[in-house]
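Request:
Um, any thoughts?
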Amino acid sequence: MSSEALKRKAIHICGNVHGSPLQPAVFRIVRTLNLKGWMRPQVSGFDLELEGDESTLVAFEKRMLAMQKRHGWSISLQSQWLAFQGDTSFENLPPLPQGDEGCWLTPDRTPCPDCVAEMFNPHQRRFFYPYTSCTECGPRYSWARQGLMDRSQTILSEYVPCEQCQAEANQSRDRRFLYPLNACATCGPSLSLQDAGGRPRFHHREALIQAAACLDRGQVLVVEEPHGYQLVAIARSSSAIKRIRSILGQPHQPAMLLVATPDAADTFCDMHPQERAWMQGPDAPLIRMRHREGRFSLSGELSPSCAFLDVGLPASGVMHLLMHLLDLPLAAFPAGPGFCSYACSPGEVNKVFGGQVDGFLASNLSVLRQTTRSLIWRVCGFKQVLRQGFGMVPIEKKLPRPSQSIMAMGGSALGGFAQTMRDRVFLGQAMDGSEEKARMDAFLDVLGDIKQGRKSPVDHYLVDSDVSQLGVQYARSTRRPCTVVDHDLAHVMGSLGRGVGQERLLGVCFDEGSSQDGASASGGDVFMLHPKGWRRIAQWSPFWLPGGQSSHPDHRACLYGMMWEVFKENLWDQLPLRLRAPLQALEIKQWNQVLATQCQSLRTRSVTRWWQGIAALLTHSNRNRFDGDAWLIMEALRGQDGHAPQGIKPYAWCLDGALEEGSIAQMDWFPMLREMLEDLHKGRGSDHAFQRLVETFYDILNRLIQALKPEGVIFAGNGFENRSLTERLGQRLHEDGIPVIMSQELPLGDQAIAMGQCMAHASFDGIRSHRKKEVRSKKQPGR
């Protein structure tokens, strides 16, 4: 063919696909089509320049698009014609030095079936090697310093591939072709089993065998995985699990139950087919499921305070091999930042847990960044993320339009950061830490980690309206421009997970509430979103919250604040006998003083806090024993099939004010609480009251929908982690033909609010809505 018939085309594959099978797939397509040119990884994907006849170049793009659809890759292709140069071969070029945008990191992946089979096959050279991985699986985010374009940018930079591993990486038909993290027992990291004092006793395969024997004897080990450290015991050993709970100070939090197969999980829990499929995904989430009666051979200490278990498959080769040796389920607890630093070495972990556990199964690698396992459960027929971690971070989303260099600081000290690069936004993992010092350490560690991977300074910060948050204080200290994004709007945009299109959407935020001015908090807000902007149309009626933000786990404080708003000092006469009887006269006097003077109290509209008060009223629970406890308590109140009995009527409520531009109506819950107490005094059960409450919330939404005619409803805020409420509302709205929108990739709480800040900033020219006059009720029931 003459050179006149040949053309040259530049193609940019844009997407977060480094270390994936995409580059080998492109190479094979190019070879099949006999194209010439080169391919080079860069920050936002891959650059190619290809030469061939026009029809062959078009065929290449069609094959790429077909492969994108088959594999579910989030990529886009941009191309343009160039002058023909006459290349004689096709080359994979090394990356150029990084520019000013840092690198895009890809999430971790659990070992694929091929790699697991290789670890269990005695005829393979990677038999019992726990760090076996390929282009389809393995550590990504956990091992990357500044991206996975080449080995030198990972923690494997000091390990030189052996001849066999290098040959695999050079063989185009091998599944490890061009894989930057290829390693084996000869050239890669190794394991050792250390005693309680941190002294190595066994190495390599023998370390795994002896570790399994220790666990089988009922001992407790600290096990290092690429994404962090776990305290591990046999799931049937109550004494060992109690030891771990004592060490970590977590008497109630459900443990991670690790099982070898989905069939094993189905033995212990009521598993839906969707949950089985999610469990086997490459992100290997833990799934919160109701346990079967009896629990068979499992210890009751796995979940001593609720009827749910957090169940998952092994997420690393280390756990796969341990469970293969034991053939028993394991209980695992993460050793989070409250105990170990964000990035830490085995020696640091030995200092923390030395003498408290029976041994350490650790590698000769340090953990670059600790990432907890992701946790999901099934709501309204799809997955809802409760905790975002391994396999899910960093999450990548496409922005409605390209952005400058922006960092969103999130909504609380435990939230995550989001950063924009061109037309993408990346949300990092949420921080952890129960104590104030641990929170500060985690904040600085995660922030430093982001800075290390990003070369240029941030041009602009997006911050929360709560000025007390660490993120706000840090952003202002940089003297860079800062834009305040409404806390509840950010929740709604995070749940939407994209920009606002041409539709009109109703955004409902039921959250814990963010303090706006130190004296009041939001958390019960309804928005209208449309292409031209947004406005707040309704709010939950406020009440005093004794103890303020520090009362987060106290259900009684929420209840007393709600009842004081309606009954004042007469609230004690209205309390059901079971709640009133334990209170002494002095205690009632002290509560009255706090409530009357609003001492250390916060004015809140939080629907989450309101539901916590309802949990105290209906279930007599005093406090949250762990994150999400109130919602699991509520699960016991709904019917077995999750549907409300026929004939259930909603409670009375009021909408004070007009749903029109320039005003904010009040959703008055006072009549609701009064009627609920009447039900309880008449001997109607808590389950009846709960069902009526759910119907009332549907009645509220239905009235708003009828008045505003939205094309969809967004559920946002951690109040919708109340699965009983969410599923019933979703079912009723589905029957009415109203689509319900909830993000299936992002948590409902503050963990994902930074993503919402970026989406809000990119969607609306002005983040602040038009100034509105709040319409307060002229009627004040109970006052």
